[in-house]
Amino acid sequence: MSFVLHGIGVSGGIAIGHAQLVSHATLEVAHYTISAEQVPAEIERLAQALRTVQKELESLHSAMTSGDAPAEFGAFLDVHWMILTDPTLAEGPRRMIAEQRCNAEWALTQQMAVLVEQFDAIEDPYLRERKADVVQVVERVLKALLGKPGAVRPANAEEQTILVAHDLSPADVIQFKNHHFAAFLTDLGGATSHTAIVARSLNVPAVVATHNARALIREDELLIVDGARNVVIVDPDGSVLTEYRLKQGEFALEQKKLRRLTTTRATTLDGQHVDLFANIELPEDLERALESGATGVGLFRSEFLFLNRDGLPTEDEQFEAYRRVAAGMEGKPVTIRTFDLGADKHKEGLDGLARVAPNPALGLRAVRFCLAEPRLFLTQLRAILRASHHGNIKILIPMLVSASEIDQTLALIARAKESLREQAIPFDAGIEVGGMIEIPAAVLAIGMFTSRLDFLSIGTNDLIQYTLAVDRSDDAVSHLYDSLHPAVLKLIAMAITTANKAGVPIAVCGEMAGEPRMTRLLLGMGLRNFSMHPAHLLTVKQRVLASDIAKIKPMVERMHRTDDQAKLTALLDKLND
Ligand code: PEP
Ligand code: MG
Q: Which of 10, 169, 174, 192 is the pocket-test mutation for ligand 1 (most atoms within 8 Å of CB)?
């Protein structure tokens, strides 16, 4: 039966394909077969997951011995340790992977069924009950496996697979970069959640906040995902399918036409030049950034180097990633944002280093975490500085709110420079340091930023979240997340005007920079540097080329004079006519 689901389209375009259900939270297990060549890697994936769980149990054990946990907890951990390290848990699955070529999760659940059956046959009621522990241990290993690439059936480029999940973390989505999914849907999520941002970087249509997609859609069902219109059509009939195939063709044609603008300079009708930079998450994104004609990287979200891996990246690993991007951009600016972990970008294993707060968006996130863990911060700063010798790198600090944070950060950068000098390692001594404007307080007291930093970049995603007190990743309040709220517009305009007056370069690198509907408004506020995901760059350039700032300005000034949201929307429509 055909039906339509509504959500929030986070990435435009149309995809037509078959559903693949994935479930991170409920630990439902994907069943798929692998090729003979994939067997050793799959066995290693299982071994890695077992090691991860061993480490988890070890840290639980040491946390228990240093605290005052009840003795039963220790006994429970011992039982889990015994089950985990007993060769029967892994031997069977290893054989199944090799002989039946099934994926690790499938093999492990088959082994679990065998073990549970054996426990059921035991007469001793105490021992019989231990089957629950077997299930718990297997669930832990499955969870670890789901966090590793390969947890989803690899998509076949010809088959057009659409991923359907209840929820996905940014770390989950980033690993899909290596798969070829035609689109994806989630029940949860907001338009500027990091999951949505990463989805955008995959350049496939995506719809979040569909509420019930995961429960209503069946495996392999035919779907149409229309990211621009925020809809998913399940099991479409023939005429709808034909209509959408036509639309898909039109969209592809539009994209082809846009590509002609790649090398065109972004200049307004009245001759003002505008910088259009790219946002990237991993060095691999550089190719797309260059293809889009970006004249710089305005935001390299370096924290993605920290996700989906065991342990932390070393200074050398980080250096290599930053050097690769700097060299690839051939002298064009590359702005590396120091890592913004915390909130929805959670790194397993860091909890022991710094406390994870009960309200993570307001807690030890981004620069706060870095200042609480200066050793980690210094490692990153040294890596960035070393890479600065190989290109035009700038450092960008996220989520600053106070002068003391800026001063502490600058002192740490000076210390990192000093240590490199002592070792005679070259770096750009004049490297520029900028700050992100993401908290309303930072706008209201922007003087502390302009007097200390070389440049600024407005993170509208967080600025909106913190101004309106709306969690950007919570679909339950996504209707309140409003980039056109008069308070938001006032803050953005104020930041741009003050920075321009002080002669401090300012950019916008939040999602707003990539929304063509907002291009003229931002130009009218005085913005001349936009940084966005490469997929949006040419559409925004098209808007810039068709804009006359002299004409836009009076209308934007009218927008500043009203707090009436309906009027603001009408004025924005007029601005875009
Ligand atoms: C922002 O907050 O707008 C931003 C660019 O940073 P992030 O989305 O990574 O929080
Ligand atoms: Mg931010």
A: 192
Secondary structure letter of residue 218 according to DSSP: P
Q: Which of 396, 471, 401, 469 is nearest to 434 (CA)?
A: 396
Cβ of residue 167 lying under 6 Å from some atom of ligand 1: no
To 5 degrees, how large is the angle CA 279–CA 281–CA 283? 100
pLDDT at 181: 84
Q: What's the angle, vertex CA 278, arms to CA 272 and CA 284, rounded to 5?
A: 155
In this structure, the residue with its CA closest to atom 3 of ligand 1 is 459
The bound ligand whose nearest atom lies closest to the alpha carbon of 279 is 1
Main-chain dihedrals φ then ψ at residue 356, nearest 5 degrees:
-85, 125
CA end-to-end span of the chain: 40
Q: Are 410 and 433 in contact (CB under 8 A)?
A: yes
Record the tokens describing residue 377, joined without a space: 């911060």
Can you tell me which atom of ligand 1 is nearest the CA of 192?
8
pLDDT along the chain (577 residues), means of 10: 91 89 56 86 92 84 61 71 89 93 88 84 77 80 68 56 82 70 87 80 87 85 93 95 94 93 97 98 94 97 86 94 97 97 70 59 91 95 98 98 98 98 98 98 98 98 97 90 96 98 98 96 98 96 97 95 94 95
Residues 473-493: b if buried by 16+ CB within 10 A, e if exposed: bbbeebeebbbbbbebbebbb
Coil vs helix vs strand at 21: strand
